[in-house]
Write a structure and sequence with these properties.
The chain is α+β, with helices and mostly antiparallel strands. It has seven helices and four strands, in the order E-H-H-E-H-H-E-H-H-E-H. The structure holds adenosine-3',5'-cyclic-monophosphate. One of its GO terms (cellular component) is cytoplasm.
């Protein structure tokens, strides 16, 4: 089915100047960018986005990293977009990511791991609404 998923190019990848290279991977693999915006998240916005991880030991570092510089946020649309994007990203830990994936090619560590992507249909809905509330208003 045609799905939408939320994608974030994280501060490490924006700083490396590889937004275009990452967009090109989405586009050549059948994912269409149907909304996008650049933002420098506050700790409050980053913490709200990652609220499900609030009790995890890495939460504080995650929030401070995600608010350390600008990010590029987009909605990707396509056939099986959620799984397709996760496949293109590779494993959360770049050391474990398959060759040729975005994280294997552009990420440095599990914290600075270049991209985020929704992990399922329910989170995709919530995450898209978090950054693009207007998309849910018809
Ligand atoms: P992301 O897909 O954006 O979702 C949560 C982020 O937390 C994850 O990518 C990683 O960058 C970061 N993180 C740091 N440590 C861990 C961990 N042990 N397990 C999962 N995510 C982690």
């Amino acid at each position: 089915a045609v799905e939408r998923t939320l994608s974030i190019i994280k501060p490490d990848a924006v700083a490396k100047n590889v937004i275009g290279k990452i967009y090109s991977r989405f586009e050549t693999n059948g994912l269409k960018i149907v909304a996008s915006r650049m933002a420098w998240l506050s700790e409050r916005e980053a913490g709200g986005f990652y609220a499900v991880h609030k009790e995890r030991p890495f939460f504080k570092d995650l929030v401070s990293f995600m608010s350390s510089g600008p990010v590029m946020i987009q909605v990707l649309e396509g056939e099986n977009a959620i799984a397709k994007n996760r496949e293109l990203m590779g494993a959360t830990d770049p050391k474990k990511a398959d060759k040729g994936t975005i994280r294997a090619d552009f990420a440095d560590s599990i914290d600075a791991n270049a991209v985020h992507g929704s992990d399922g249909p329910d989170t995709a809905k919530v995450e898209i609404a978090y950054f693009f509330p207007a998309l849910n208003v018809f």
